[in-house]
Design brief:
By secondary structure, the protein is an alpha+beta fold. It has 2 domains: 147 residues, Immunoglobulin-like, CATH 2.60.40.3120; 240 residues, Aminopeptidase. The chain is built from 11 helices and 19 strands. The strands form 3 sheets. It has an 8-stranded mixed sheet, with helices on both faces. It has a 6-stranded antiparallel sheet with strand order 1-2-5-11-7-8, with no helix packed on it. The radius of gyration is 21 Å and the shape is globular. It starts with a helix and ends with a helix. It binds zinc ion.
């Protein structure tokens, strides 16, 4: 995993961010984030399943979506050496986070133009990454990746992207972000659980029957608790990488982490939406809904499992002091609780963010507090109001350099541990 993170370096991604922001017409002002959330129905709705197959559009080129996390909904020959793929969402309406992942190979060595296109109304968002072993990923060289030129002229989001791609009989994986599916996450969690102070359990099952796994990072005797969530939204891999760095830092064997584990018990659900992740969804669960809008109605098994677990802890006289939900968006952003609202450790979240700014020279955190009367429909607001845990949603930029994500995850953990031990 370190290889992956290090491979995608700061310079490459800094450039990509600039290209992306320019293509979106966004200048240097801070990303405003989402408008206040509106209530949405989270009852189960049908989704469109992908036809799992190997496409043979011509030229002796093959494209397949026959693996977990894949998304590829069609392929056709659209020019003498151009193969176009179609990427569609699981259902609509849906936020524009068009995940794609597929593998390509060819009967003979040749260079093709691979055009990634989307359902009408949606734009290209994720800069393509390549892998030749499914494990190590690199962004496509910028000279070989061409965004929809019409977008630049009209200052709109690009509708497609064309990759100059050499292909041969060896498989190349192409994906929107590093491919990290539920089996990868479970393997990571199982490895962590080799430590005597970490337990791995199952708090429920997804709608399609995949386990919702939870790590418990001791002390089991402690009644002072921290809750960590990730991957409610399948493509949000950068949030997952930050969560991973955060959790691994808490599990280290230095005096800070040991002292923290002695006083607090941390619970981690590293994959809230395994169905969406493994089915290559843009955003929704297999119920066709946004799980991060279901924290008031609790219509879905994934959110129900976490609520039931947390309620059980409260009944046994435990206290949740902090909850962090890791996500990804265009740029790094913190969604916090309205500052006038006090939970079980008032001021903790602003202190954590301030400490981050002090540790990272030049880092000016983008903080977007929720309204005081924000609906209780997402995890952060719901957990704050139900359990009085100080809470925030940590959104990590899609293109934040992977080494910086690692650093931010570790520093978030260090500052959280120090500040909570000082209380
Ligand atoms: Zn999200």
């Amino acid at each position: 995993m370190h290889k992956i993170i290090n491979a995608i370096n700061s310079r490459t991604f800094g450039l990509l961010v600039l290209v992306f922001l320019a293509s979106c017409g966004i200048k240097d002002s801070k990303w405003k984030g989402q408008p206040p959330l509106k209530k949405v129905d989270t009852s189960t709705r049908p989704i469109q399943f992908q036809l799992k197959k190997t496409y043979e559009p011509g030229l002796g080129v093959y494209l397949s979506n026959e693996f977990a996390g894949a998304r590829l909904n069609g392929a056709a020959l659209t020019g003498p050496d151009e193969v176009s793929v179609l990427i569609t969402p699981e259902n609509t309406p849906i936020n524009s986070s068009p995940w794609y992942a597929f593998k390509v190979w060819s009967d003979k060595p040749q260079n093709i133009h691979l055009k990634i296109t989307y359902t009408a109304g949606y734009s290209h968002r994720y800069y393509p990454k390549l892998s030749y072993d499914r494990k190590n990923w690199l962004p496509v060289d910028s000279a070989s990746c061409h965004l929809d030129p019409a977008a630049n002229n009209k200052k709109e989001s690009p509708k497609f992207c064309i990759i100059d791609l050499p292909v041969n009989k060896d498989t190349v994986w192409i994906a929107a972000q590093e491919l990290i599916v539920s089996s990868d996450i479970n393997r990571w969690a199982e490895n962590l659980a080799d430590s005597s102070f970490i337990q791995l359990s199952e708090i429920g099952q997804s709608r399609e029957g995949r386990p919702i796994k939870m790590l418990e990072i001791d002390n089991p005797e402690s009644n002072k608790l921290v809750m960590v969530l990730s991957r409610q939204h399948p493509p949000e891999v950068t949030g997952w990488l930050a969560m991973k760095a955060f959790v691994e830092r808490i599990c280290e064997n230095d005096s800070l982490a040991k002292a923290f584990r002695n006083e607090y018990c941390t619970y981690v659900v590293p994959c809230m939406n395994p169905d969406g992740v493994d089915n290559g969804h843009w955003r929704h669960s297999s119920a066709g809904i946004d799980l991060n809008r279901d924290w008031e109605a609790f219509n879905q098994p994934e959110t129900q499992a976490v609520r039931k677990f947390m309620q059980g802890k409260i009944l046994r006289k435990n206290t949740f002091y902090l909850a962090i939900d890791f996500h990804s968006t265009i740029e790094d952003i913190y969604y916090t609780i309205a500052p006038q609202l006090k939970g079980n450790m008032p001021g903790l979240v602003p202190q954590i963010i301030k400490a981050m700014a002090e540790d990272l020279p030049g880092y000016d955190p983008n903080i977007r507090p929720n309204e005081k009367d924000a609906l209780h429909i997402n995890s952060t607001v719901s957990i704050f109001h139900s359990f009085h845990a100080e809470a925030f949603t940590y959104e990590v930029g899609d293109n934040t350099p992977r080494d910086l994500i690692q650093k931010k995850g570790e520093l978030t953990a260090e500052n959280t541990m120090q500040l909570m031990l000082n209380r």
